Amino acid sequence: MAEAIAIFEGANPQSQIIVLVGEGHINYNHGIPDRVARRISDNSFQQTSVLLGTETALEFDFQNASTDFVWHF
Length: 73
Fold this sequence. Notes:
Blueprint: H1 2-11, H2 32-39, E1 50-53, H3 55-58, E2 69-72
Parallel strand pairs: 1-2
Helix pairs in contact: 1-2
């Protein structure tokens, strides 16, 4: 998935990319955002991770996670 994101971004640098994945794909700096960052060396490329919260978000370990925001509903 990270490779597909990097390829799309390279072909469409002015586009905004939104990727919906499960919690395990963004946690603990081993997921998609980390792998995308390794593939895209352009410093102007920015990523933001949002954990859509339920009860899981209340128990989430933010200090060891790589998510930027939690949207609790």
